[in-house]
TrEMBL record:
Name of the protein in question: Response regulator transcription factor
Keyword Metal-binding carried by entry: no
Keyword terms, alphabetized: Phosphoprotein
Domain HTH LytTR-type: 141-245
Signal peptide (from-to): none
GO molecular function terms listed in the Swiss-Prot or TrEMBL record: DNA binding; phosphorelay response regulator activity
Presence of the UniProt keyword Electron transport in the record: no
Pfam families cross-referenced by the UniProt entry: LytTR (PF04397)
PTM sites of type 4-aspartylphosphate: 60
Domain Response regulatory per the UniProt entry, residue ranges: 2-126
InterPro entries tied to this protein: CheY-like_superfamily, LytR-like, LytTR_DNA-bd_dom, Sig_transdc_resp-reg_receiver
Domain of life, per lineage: Bacteria
Length: 247
């Protein structure tokens, strides 16, 4: 899960980031936190089209740039109806404008200079909700690495394969990285019970949406990432049958 903090006051940005990092590092979940001083800084690093439904935002409302927090949230929401957006503000009256612009925020952090401790309480409440949402999200599944849990978006999976001569270990290929973890195909398959995941093979779980081509004669299955596997004609037939059912 990625959490983006965008706050134009450096001290407040630092406080938000440290508070959330301290709380989340004690939890069995991987959260990547990135902070920016304004919308322009954020947009230099990330394209709005690349935002995932599992991403979350803490947005200050009043950036002193061409695009304020509400403008940025509106642009994000136009492209992604599911990511979590929380506004940080000292002015509760802004909620009416936000609602009228159809942004549908997940909530607010209300800054009260006279009661700074309430900000920490609100941040912890938000962090707990984000963890709960990640765990219950239908397109996200969990893998355990030691005492930590990682939550992976099924849409980013290319395939999962058993590792030869390493019984009880799997290699997960995603669009961003490869992960080796302790499990088996039979244990993992129920967690990936979605139409585009093929889970009825002994050594593989395949994302049918990531397959680019199949060579029936040679047994090569090529994925959009360029990765290839070689399988038997019997497995090729199963994959083609799965495509017929899906499409």
């Amino acid at each position: 899960m990625r959490l983006f903090i965008i706050e134009d006051n450096f001290l407040q940005k630092d406080y938000l980031e440290k508070t959330l990092t301290t709380f989340l590092e004690k939890r069995p979940i991987t959260v990547e936190i990135e902070s920016f001083l304004n919308a322009d800084e954020f947009l230099k690093v990330h394209k709005i089209d690349s935002i995932k439904r599992t991403d979350a935002f803490l947005l200050d409302i009043d950036f002193k740039t061409r695009m304020d927090g509400i403008d940025l949230a509106e642009a994000i929401r136009d492209k992604n109806a599911y990511c979590s957006i929380y506004f940080v503000t000292g002015d509760e009256r802004k909620a009416e404008e936000i609602i009228n612009r159809g942004i549908l925020p997940s909530g607010y952090v209300i800054k009260n200079p006279e009661r700074i401790e309430t900000v920490e309480e609100q941040l912890i409440e938000i962090a707990q909700k984000l963890i709960s949402d990640a765990q219950s999200h239908s397109s996200v599944f969990e893998i355990k690495q030691g005492n930590l849990s990682r939550f992976i978006d099924m849409n980013e999976i290319i395939l999962v394969e058993s590792i030869p001569h390493q019984r009880g270990y799997l290699r997960l290929h995603t669009l961003k990285e490869n992960i080796i973890f302790r499990s088996s195909i039979s244990q993992l398959a129920p967690q990936l019970n979605t139409p585009f995941m093929m889970t009825n093979l002994k050594s593989y779980i395949l994302n049918l949406n990531q397959i680019q081509s199949i060579d029936k004669k040679s047994g090569y299955v090529q994925f959009r990432s360029g990765y290839e596997i070689v399988v038997s004609k019997r497995i090729i037939k199963k994959i083609l049958d799965a495509f017929d059912e899906l499409y």
